[in-house]
Amino acid sequence: MAGLFPTCSPMPIQPAVIRHLGQADYEPTFAAMRAFTDARTEDTPDELWIVEHPPVYTLGLGADRGHLLAGATSIPCVQTDRGGEVTYHGPGQVVIYLMMDLRRNKPGGKLFARQFVNKIEQAIINVLAAYNLDGERVEGAPGIYMSGGPKKGAKIAALGLKVRGNGCTYHGVSLNVDMDLAPFSWINPCGYAGLETVDMRTVGVIAPLADVQQALADELVLQLQVAEPELT
User: What is the pLDDT of residues 91-109, one digit of tens each?
Assistant: First the structure.
């Protein structure tokens, strides 16, 4: 991973801007992420966008449409440029998009893609732990899965990212809080047939979406060390 990004002069730590987008359609949000990343310079502050989407399936660059099963045609499906397979976004789910420059100096140095993924996953694990839920990584399957109980092995959070050659990122992470889970049964989530998907409510936690949104944003800021956020 050492040669992933071109050598450049150190850039200063800057505060991240956290934007609360409320409920927003997926396609214009996707277009806005791309436009932001196209326009940013080395001085542009990193941004985290917190959003809740209406029902939508999204496909990664190499996604196999065969993972869309019977019933999926009732929900819009959008081709994206992130990594990964098919996933579902809908009401009751925390979605946070990460517009970051991984080359920028942070405490401990710049981030590389593998570290970036690891820190995002750790943020989810820490938030779940704050609600007395145990989450874990699964080798070769990005996201977070329940590590015990009757729902052991079920997926509760997903991530899909785009890292451009200049080290700038977009797309992000989703954590299921209180959802209609039926649409997950109409796909092979992230390309895995028969993979069970759960939300926090299913495993016994009732929490306001806004509280979990803020908790995950705060933990991402801490893990990614992007300084103190500015709330907008």
Answer: 999 999 999 999 886 665 6
2-33: buried (b, 16+ CB within 10 Å) or exposed (e) per residue?
eeebeeeeeeeebebbbbeeeeeebeebbebb
Q: What percent of the chain has pLDDT over 70?
A: 88
Full set of structural domains in the chain with CATH: 17-231 (3.30.930.10)
The number of residues making up the chain comes to 232
Answer yes or no: are the C-beta atoms of 121 and 130 closer than 8 Å: no
Model-wide pTM > 0.70 = yes
Provide the b/e sequence for 73-90 (b: ≥16 CB within 10 Å).
eebebeebebbbbbbbbb
Of 8, 77, 168, 190, the active-site residue reads 190
Phi, psi of 145 (to 5 degrees): -125, 150
190 tagged catalytic? yes
